[in-house]
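thought: user wants a sequence for this fold. calling inverse folding tool.
action: design(structure=
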């Protein structure tokens, strides 16, 4: 097993057991964004009145958009159309506006995502 910090290391898929006793394999070698199970559970369980409930796909699109330069790149990377990316982002903006936390710009969405624990500054 490679040591941490070594270059060109190959990680083996990690196996986790869910509360339902199902095995879930996670391949951490890819370039996909990864949310640890403990954080995902915390985010899913946060039903604060100020925090909108985003679908898993909305969250994925949002994070990918924050980490890239264009919506076109997000569409290509996720294998969806540009209009689908725009639809997800519009739905997210509507959900924030309905909670009294309008976020009409990318910068404001980043701020909301940081406030809500969806991302850390190091993720950007």
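)
observation: tool returned 124 residues.
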């Amino acid at each position: 097993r490679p040591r941490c910090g070594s270059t060109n290391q190959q990680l083996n898929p990690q196996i986790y057991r869910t509360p339902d006793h199902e095995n879930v394999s996670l391949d951490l070698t890819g370039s996909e964004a990864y949310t640890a199970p403990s954080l995902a559970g915390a985010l899913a369980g946060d039903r604060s009145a100020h925090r909108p409930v985003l679908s898993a796909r909305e969250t994925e699109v949002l994070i990918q958009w924050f980490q890239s330069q264009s919506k076109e790149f997000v569409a290509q990377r996720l294998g969806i159309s540009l209009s689908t990316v725009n639809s997800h982002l519009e739905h997210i903006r509507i959900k924030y506006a309905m909670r009294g936390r309008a976020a009409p710009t990318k910068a404001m969405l980043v701020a909301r995502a940081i406030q809500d624990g969806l991302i850390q500054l190091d993720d950007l």
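thought: summarizing for user.
answer: Here is the designed sequence. Residues 82-98 form the longest helix (17 residues).
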